Amino acid sequence: MRKIPPLKALQAFEAASRLGSFAAASDELHLTPSAISHQIRLLEQQLGVTLFHRVHRAVELTDIGRRYAEVIAEAFGLIEANTRSIERTGKSDILTIHSVPSFATQWLMPRLSRFSALNPDIDVRLNASVATIDLAAGEADFDIRYGSVFPSSGMEVQPFPEETIVITCSPKVLVGQTLNLAETALIHSEINLYTWREWQRDHPETKLPLDRGLRFDRSFMAINAAVDGLGVAIESRLMIERELEAGKLILPFGMIGPKLVCHRLTYLKTKAHFQKMKAFRQWLFEELNKTMANLT
To answer: Which of 42, 109, 175, 257 can pair with 165 through a Cys bridge, CB separation 3.0 to 4.6 Å?
Structure first.
């Protein structure tokens, strides 16, 4: 248990030491001078020291009182500054989400306005990077990861629904020709769970030019290259939903492909009951399930 004197006594002491008068402190705090004197005497009794020299109607801080007044004034100043900061920024709760860049760019960002509309009291901060995030240190509330996750103690890992991996390209790649993968420039997403090498393994009858083509370490860059007509990509349908709807990409071999759990939501178990956390988890998986239903 913290050993902290009563707040009323500290307020009386801070005001009296700052203003140099019990009477002035009483005016500021809307108390009687005797009430101020009583609170300070209680504080002195609890601390076992004399904080003020009392000479007739005047008061003067003792040496130890002066040192204590400096500490209390600094503490009150921090409280006041942070209170004003909250008043300036509003009373919204801030939800910090860290995500791998491609999921943030391709799927999450275009939908965040829907979450904000449903939860106007929650402000969202979205950070996108491949850096390791320390949830226990409060660097984020949620971390959306790609691939396997080995949770540390106290961490909850919630897998996303399975994503379908498909072959995709710009419509202009097919103008006047039938797509022949063996003779087509391939776009490689090198860190994807399912790449052209896995496709070649599953389709040994087709020999792909695996040593040729553009190579990227992020899906969103490979998707943009495909939209620009630079070749054929192999990506998750979830990640290219907007491009398919806009007609910027097509699926030359149809909508069927291998299914994989690609992404996972991680968060601390101790924070799972927070209202902002429950609201985002519910919204996220409702949106994911809705998207998956539309893709079937």
So the answer is: 257
